[in-house]
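Sequence in, structure out. Go.
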Amino acid sequence: MPNVRAESNSSVNLHGDTRAARQGRRGFLRTAAASAALGFGMSNAVINSAQPESQGGSKQAGSELPVTFALNTSTIRGQKLAIDQQVAIVAEAGYDGIEPWIGDLRKYVDAGGSVAELKEKIEDSRLAVVSAIGFANWIVDDEKERAKGLEQMRSDMELVKSIGGTHIAAPPVGAHKPDSDTPSLAAIAERYAAALRVGEETGVTPQLELWGFSKTLSTLGELAYVAAASNHPDACVLPDFYHIYKGAKDPQNAFAGLAMIEASRMHCFHINDFPAEPTQAKIADKDRVFPGDGVCDLPAIIRQLIDSGFRGSFSLELFNPEYWKRDALEVCKEGLQKCRAVVQQAIK
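Output:
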Protein backbone atom coordinates (compact mmCIF):
# COMPACT_ATOMS: atom_id res chain seq x y z
CA MET A 1 0.00 0.00 0.00
CA PRO A 2 1.42 3.38 -1.00
CA ASN A 3 1.80 6.94 0.21
CA VAL A 4 -1.02 8.14 -2.02
CA ARG A 5 -3.36 5.85 -0.09
CA ALA A 6 -2.62 7.59 3.21
CA GLU A 7 -5.68 9.83 2.91
CA SER A 8 -6.76 9.17 6.45
CA ASN A 9 -9.61 11.08 7.73
CA SER A 10 -4.52 2.71 3.09
CA SER A 11 -13.52 -10.93 1.37
CA VAL A 12 -15.76 -12.97 0.99
CA ASN A 13 -13.84 -16.20 1.48
CA LEU A 14 -14.32 -17.81 -1.90
CA HIS A 15 -13.53 -21.32 -0.78
CA GLY A 16 -15.89 -21.94 2.12
CA ASP A 17 -13.36 -21.16 4.85
CA THR A 18 -14.56 -21.09 8.46
CA ARG A 19 -12.95 -19.92 11.68
CA ALA A 20 -12.93 -23.47 13.02
CA ALA A 21 -11.14 -24.66 9.91
CA ARG A 22 -8.62 -21.86 10.20
CA GLN A 23 -7.91 -22.77 13.81
CA GLY A 24 -7.30 -26.36 12.81
CA ARG A 25 -4.81 -25.57 10.11
CA ARG A 26 -1.11 -25.89 10.22
CA GLY A 27 0.87 -23.35 12.23
CA PHE A 28 1.55 -19.91 10.86
CA LEU A 29 5.24 -20.43 10.16
CA ARG A 30 6.45 -23.18 7.85
CA THR A 31 9.59 -25.08 8.65
CA ALA A 32 13.01 -24.01 7.50
CA ALA A 33 13.35 -27.29 5.62
CA ALA A 34 10.34 -26.37 3.49
CA SER A 35 11.80 -22.97 2.73
CA ALA A 36 15.04 -24.51 1.54
CA ALA A 37 13.13 -26.33 -1.16
CA LEU A 38 11.65 -23.13 -2.53
CA GLY A 39 13.50 -21.20 -5.18
CA PHE A 40 12.06 -17.70 -5.03
CA GLY A 41 14.14 -14.94 -6.52
CA MET A 42 14.53 -12.92 -9.66
CA SER A 43 15.40 -15.82 -11.98
CA ASN A 44 13.46 -16.72 -15.12
CA ALA A 45 13.04 -20.39 -14.26
CA VAL A 46 9.52 -21.68 -13.73
CA ILE A 47 9.55 -24.67 -11.42
CA ASN A 48 8.21 -27.81 -13.06
CA SER A 49 5.71 -29.70 -10.96
CA ALA A 50 2.18 -30.98 -11.39
CA GLN A 51 -0.58 -28.41 -11.70
CA PRO A 52 -2.67 -28.39 -8.51
CA GLU A 53 -6.34 -29.08 -8.71
CA SER A 54 -8.55 -26.01 -8.73
CA GLN A 55 -10.30 -25.30 -5.43
CA GLY A 56 -12.54 -22.54 -6.67
CA GLY A 57 -10.81 -20.67 -9.42
CA SER A 58 -11.91 -17.90 -11.73
CA LYS A 59 -15.55 -17.54 -12.66
CA GLN A 60 -14.59 -17.14 -16.32
CA ALA A 61 -15.88 -19.88 -18.57
CA GLY A 62 -13.40 -22.68 -19.11
CA SER A 63 -11.03 -21.45 -16.41
CA GLU A 64 -8.94 -24.06 -14.65
CA LEU A 65 -6.92 -21.64 -12.58
CA PRO A 66 -6.77 -22.38 -8.84
CA VAL A 67 -6.92 -18.72 -7.82
CA THR A 68 -9.34 -15.86 -8.37
CA PHE A 69 -8.80 -12.31 -9.55
CA ALA A 70 -9.98 -9.02 -8.12
CA LEU A 71 -9.44 -5.36 -8.88
CA ASN A 72 -8.18 -2.99 -6.23
CA THR A 73 -9.93 0.18 -7.36
CA SER A 74 -6.72 2.21 -6.99
CA THR A 75 -5.97 0.89 -10.48
CA ILE A 76 -8.71 3.16 -11.91
CA ARG A 77 -8.64 5.77 -9.17
CA GLY A 78 -7.56 8.55 -11.51
CA GLN A 79 -10.75 8.20 -13.54
CA LYS A 80 -12.66 9.46 -10.47
CA LEU A 81 -15.58 7.05 -10.73
CA ALA A 82 -18.19 6.52 -8.04
CA ILE A 83 -18.15 3.13 -6.33
CA ASP A 84 -21.27 1.90 -8.13
CA GLN A 85 -19.64 2.78 -11.45
CA GLN A 86 -16.49 0.96 -10.37
CA VAL A 87 -18.53 -2.14 -9.58
CA ALA A 88 -20.14 -2.10 -13.02
CA ILE A 89 -16.81 -1.75 -14.83
CA VAL A 90 -15.02 -4.40 -12.74
CA ALA A 91 -17.86 -6.85 -13.40
CA GLU A 92 -17.95 -6.10 -17.12
CA ALA A 93 -14.19 -6.63 -17.35
CA GLY A 94 -14.68 -10.16 -15.97
CA TYR A 95 -13.10 -10.08 -12.51
CA ASP A 96 -14.17 -12.41 -9.71
CA GLY A 97 -13.95 -9.76 -7.03
CA ILE A 98 -13.43 -6.14 -6.10
CA GLU A 99 -11.31 -4.44 -3.43
CA PRO A 100 -12.88 -1.02 -2.81
CA TRP A 101 -11.56 1.91 -0.83
CA ILE A 102 -13.38 2.96 2.31
CA GLY A 103 -13.18 6.59 1.19
CA ASP A 104 -15.14 5.80 -1.98
CA LEU A 105 -17.74 3.88 0.00
CA ARG A 106 -18.22 6.80 2.39
CA LYS A 107 -18.53 9.27 -0.48
CA TYR A 108 -21.26 7.09 -1.96
CA VAL A 109 -23.16 6.94 1.33
CA ASP A 110 -22.69 10.66 2.05
CA ALA A 111 -24.15 11.44 -1.39
CA GLY A 112 -27.30 9.51 -0.50
CA GLY A 113 -26.36 6.14 -1.94
CA SER A 114 -27.99 3.01 -0.52
CA VAL A 115 -25.63 0.43 0.97
CA ALA A 116 -28.28 -2.24 0.51
CA GLU A 117 -28.58 -1.38 -3.19
CA LEU A 118 -24.80 -1.39 -3.59
CA LYS A 119 -24.57 -4.82 -1.97
CA GLU A 120 -27.29 -6.09 -4.29
CA LYS A 121 -25.44 -4.65 -7.30
CA ILE A 122 -22.24 -6.39 -6.22
CA GLU A 123 -24.03 -9.70 -5.70
CA ASP A 124 -25.93 -9.44 -8.99
CA SER A 125 -22.60 -8.80 -10.70
CA ARG A 126 -21.23 -12.04 -9.18
CA LEU A 127 -18.41 -10.15 -7.53
CA ALA A 128 -16.90 -10.94 -4.14
CA VAL A 129 -15.65 -8.16 -1.88
CA VAL A 130 -12.25 -9.77 -1.33
CA SER A 131 -10.90 -6.98 0.86
CA ALA A 132 -11.19 -3.23 1.37
CA ILE A 133 -8.72 -0.39 1.86
CA GLY A 134 -8.89 1.71 5.02
CA PHE A 135 -6.45 3.81 7.01
CA ALA A 136 -7.32 3.49 10.68
CA ASN A 137 -4.48 4.43 13.09
CA TRP A 138 -4.49 1.14 14.99
CA ILE A 139 -0.69 0.97 15.28
CA VAL A 140 0.30 4.37 16.74
CA ASP A 141 1.96 4.81 20.15
CA ASP A 142 -0.42 7.50 21.39
CA GLU A 143 -3.04 5.62 23.41
CA LYS A 144 -5.87 8.07 22.77
CA GLU A 145 -5.16 8.21 19.06
CA ARG A 146 -4.95 4.44 18.93
CA ALA A 147 -8.33 4.14 20.65
CA LYS A 148 -9.80 6.50 18.05
CA GLY A 149 -8.13 4.45 15.37
CA LEU A 150 -9.74 1.24 16.58
CA GLU A 151 -13.15 2.92 16.61
CA GLN A 152 -12.53 4.11 13.05
CA MET A 153 -11.53 0.56 12.12
CA ARG A 154 -14.73 -0.76 13.69
CA SER A 155 -16.77 1.71 11.65
CA ASP A 156 -14.86 0.78 8.49
CA MET A 157 -15.39 -2.92 9.20
CA GLU A 158 -19.11 -2.42 9.66
CA LEU A 159 -19.29 -0.64 6.32
CA VAL A 160 -17.39 -3.46 4.62
CA LYS A 161 -19.67 -6.02 6.26
CA SER A 162 -22.73 -4.17 4.97
CA ILE A 163 -21.68 -4.77 1.35
CA GLY A 164 -20.77 -8.41 1.90
CA GLY A 165 -17.05 -8.22 2.73
CA THR A 166 -15.21 -10.17 5.41
CA HIS A 167 -11.67 -8.73 5.25
CA ILE A 168 -10.03 -5.31 5.39
CA ALA A 169 -6.44 -4.09 5.02
CA ALA A 170 -4.56 -3.10 8.19
CA PRO A 171 -1.50 -1.15 7.00
CA PRO A 172 1.06 0.54 9.28
CA VAL A 173 -0.38 4.01 8.65
CA GLY A 174 0.75 6.38 11.40
CA ALA A 175 4.05 4.56 11.89
CA HIS A 176 5.28 4.67 8.30
CA LYS A 177 6.80 8.12 7.83
CA PRO A 178 10.46 8.98 8.48
CA ASP A 179 9.51 11.24 11.41
CA SER A 180 7.01 8.77 12.92
CA ASP A 181 7.55 6.94 16.17
CA THR A 182 8.47 3.33 15.53
CA PRO A 183 6.71 0.90 17.89
CA SER A 184 8.51 -2.33 18.73
CA LEU A 185 7.35 -5.42 16.89
CA ALA A 186 6.10 -6.87 20.19
CA ALA A 187 3.96 -3.77 20.74
CA ILE A 188 2.66 -3.92 17.18
CA ALA A 189 1.69 -7.57 17.72
CA GLU A 190 -0.38 -6.60 20.77
CA ARG A 191 -2.06 -3.81 18.82
CA TYR A 192 -2.78 -6.08 15.89
CA ALA A 193 -4.35 -8.56 18.32
CA ALA A 194 -6.61 -5.74 19.54
CA ALA A 195 -7.65 -5.03 15.94
CA LEU A 196 -8.35 -8.73 15.42
CA ARG A 197 -10.63 -8.72 18.46
CA VAL A 198 -12.59 -5.88 16.91
CA GLY A 199 -12.73 -8.02 13.80
CA GLU A 200 -14.22 -10.88 15.79
CA GLU A 201 -17.00 -8.57 16.96
CA THR A 202 -17.78 -7.18 13.51
CA GLY A 203 -17.18 -10.25 11.38
CA VAL A 204 -14.50 -8.53 9.28
CA THR A 205 -10.90 -9.64 9.68
CA PRO A 206 -8.03 -7.10 9.48
CA GLN A 207 -5.17 -8.29 7.26
CA LEU A 208 -1.71 -7.16 8.32
CA GLU A 209 -0.46 -5.29 5.27
CA LEU A 210 3.09 -4.82 4.06
CA TRP A 211 4.30 -1.34 3.08
CA GLY A 212 7.78 -1.57 1.63
CA PHE A 213 8.53 2.12 2.14
CA SER A 214 7.40 2.14 5.78
CA LYS A 215 9.62 2.46 8.86
CA THR A 216 8.05 -0.76 10.14
CA LEU A 217 6.11 -3.68 8.62
CA SER A 218 8.22 -3.11 5.52
CA THR A 219 9.66 -6.64 5.29
CA LEU A 220 8.18 -10.12 5.17
CA GLY A 221 10.07 -11.00 8.35
CA GLU A 222 8.40 -8.20 10.30
CA LEU A 223 5.02 -9.12 8.86
CA ALA A 224 5.40 -12.79 9.80
CA TYR A 225 6.66 -12.01 13.29
CA VAL A 226 3.81 -9.65 14.15
CA ALA A 227 1.13 -11.97 12.77
CA ALA A 228 2.53 -14.95 14.68
CA ALA A 229 3.15 -12.99 17.89
CA SER A 230 -0.42 -11.68 17.92
CA ASN A 231 -1.40 -15.19 19.09
CA HIS A 232 -4.79 -14.89 17.45
CA PRO A 233 -6.40 -17.61 15.30
CA ASP A 234 -7.58 -15.10 12.69
CA ALA A 235 -4.16 -13.49 12.11
CA CYS A 236 -3.44 -13.13 8.40
CA VAL A 237 -1.26 -11.08 6.09
CA LEU A 238 -1.73 -9.03 2.94
CA PRO A 239 1.46 -9.13 0.83
CA ASP A 240 2.20 -7.25 -2.39
CA PHE A 241 4.80 -8.10 -5.04
CA TYR A 242 5.96 -4.49 -5.39
CA HIS A 243 6.13 -3.85 -1.66
CA ILE A 244 8.02 -7.08 -0.99
CA TYR A 245 10.66 -5.91 -3.47
CA LYS A 246 10.65 -2.33 -2.21
CA GLY A 247 11.19 -3.30 1.42
CA ALA A 248 13.62 -6.20 0.91
CA LYS A 249 17.09 -5.93 2.41
CA ASP A 250 18.38 -8.19 -0.37
CA PRO A 251 16.47 -7.42 -3.60
CA GLN A 252 17.92 -10.44 -5.39
CA ASN A 253 16.26 -12.76 -2.86
CA ALA A 254 13.31 -10.53 -2.02
CA PHE A 255 10.69 -13.27 -2.17
CA ALA A 256 12.42 -16.08 -0.27
CA GLY A 257 10.61 -15.13 2.94
CA LEU A 258 7.24 -16.07 1.45
CA ALA A 259 8.20 -19.69 2.09
CA MET A 260 7.91 -19.02 5.82
CA ILE A 261 4.29 -17.87 5.69
CA GLU A 262 1.48 -20.41 5.73
CA ALA A 263 -0.45 -20.04 2.46
CA SER A 264 -3.85 -20.23 4.16
CA ARG A 265 -2.95 -17.02 6.01
CA MET A 266 -2.92 -15.08 2.74
CA HIS A 267 -6.52 -14.55 1.67
CA CYS A 268 -5.70 -11.70 -0.68
CA PHE A 269 -2.40 -10.88 -2.41
CA HIS A 270 -1.81 -7.60 -4.27
CA ILE A 271 -0.48 -8.37 -7.72
CA ASN A 272 1.56 -6.00 -9.88
CA ASP A 273 4.97 -5.76 -11.52
CA PHE A 274 7.84 -3.29 -11.43
CA PRO A 275 10.45 -2.09 -13.95
CA ALA A 276 14.23 -2.36 -13.69
CA GLU A 277 14.41 1.44 -13.49
CA PRO A 278 14.03 3.38 -11.25
CA THR A 279 16.24 1.43 -8.85
CA GLN A 280 14.84 -0.19 -5.72
CA ALA A 281 15.83 2.85 -3.63
CA LYS A 282 14.02 5.28 -5.91
CA ILE A 283 11.10 3.26 -7.22
CA ALA A 284 7.69 4.51 -6.10
CA ASP A 285 4.06 3.46 -6.21
CA LYS A 286 3.46 5.26 -9.49
CA ASP A 287 6.07 3.09 -11.20
CA ARG A 288 4.13 -0.15 -10.82
CA VAL A 289 3.06 -1.75 -14.08
CA PHE A 290 0.80 -4.54 -15.29
CA PRO A 291 1.91 -8.09 -14.41
CA GLY A 292 4.36 -9.34 -17.01
CA ASP A 293 5.37 -5.85 -18.13
CA GLY A 294 8.19 -5.56 -15.58
CA VAL A 295 11.18 -7.57 -14.36
CA CYS A 296 9.66 -9.49 -11.46
CA ASP A 297 9.65 -13.24 -12.12
CA LEU A 298 5.97 -13.55 -11.27
CA PRO A 299 5.41 -17.02 -12.79
CA ALA A 300 8.11 -18.64 -10.62
CA ILE A 301 6.93 -16.92 -7.44
CA ILE A 302 3.27 -17.63 -8.14
CA ARG A 303 4.09 -21.27 -8.89
CA GLN A 304 5.63 -21.65 -5.47
CA LEU A 305 2.67 -19.90 -3.83
CA ILE A 306 0.23 -22.27 -5.52
CA ASP A 307 2.38 -25.33 -4.75
CA SER A 308 2.40 -24.19 -1.11
CA GLY A 309 -1.40 -24.07 -1.08
CA PHE A 310 -2.33 -20.49 -1.94
CA ARG A 311 -5.94 -20.44 -3.15
CA GLY A 312 -6.83 -16.84 -2.44
CA SER A 313 -7.42 -13.87 -4.68
CA PHE A 314 -4.84 -11.90 -6.63
CA SER A 315 -6.03 -8.29 -6.45
CA LEU A 316 -4.54 -6.00 -9.10
CA GLU A 317 -3.24 -2.88 -7.34
CA LEU A 318 -1.65 -0.15 -9.45
CA PHE A 319 -1.18 3.61 -9.12
CA ASN A 320 0.21 4.31 -12.55
CA PRO A 321 -0.78 7.80 -13.78
CA GLU A 322 -0.50 6.64 -17.40
CA TYR A 323 -3.24 4.08 -16.81
CA TRP A 324 -5.38 6.74 -15.16
CA LYS A 325 -5.41 8.66 -18.45
CA ARG A 326 -6.98 5.73 -20.28
CA ASP A 327 -10.50 4.37 -20.44
CA ALA A 328 -11.20 2.56 -17.17
CA LEU A 329 -12.81 -0.51 -18.74
CA GLU A 330 -9.91 -0.86 -21.17
CA VAL A 331 -7.42 -0.73 -18.29
CA CYS A 332 -9.40 -3.29 -16.28
CA LYS A 333 -9.60 -5.72 -19.17
CA GLU A 334 -5.91 -5.47 -19.98
CA GLY A 335 -5.02 -5.86 -16.32
CA LEU A 336 -7.10 -9.03 -15.94
CA GLN A 337 -5.71 -10.52 -19.13
CA LYS A 338 -2.15 -9.97 -17.92
CA CYS A 339 -2.90 -11.28 -14.42
CA ARG A 340 -4.34 -14.46 -15.88
CA ALA A 341 -1.39 -14.80 -18.27
CA VAL A 342 1.26 -14.86 -15.53
CA VAL A 343 -0.75 -17.38 -13.51
CA GLN A 344 -1.20 -19.57 -16.57
CA GLN A 345 2.55 -19.44 -17.15
CA ALA A 346 3.06 -20.43 -13.52
CA ILE A 347 1.01 -23.62 -13.71
CA LYS A 348 1.78 -24.85 -17.21
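Check: Residues 3-56 have pLDDT under 50 and may be disordered. Residues 143-162 form the longest helix (20 residues).
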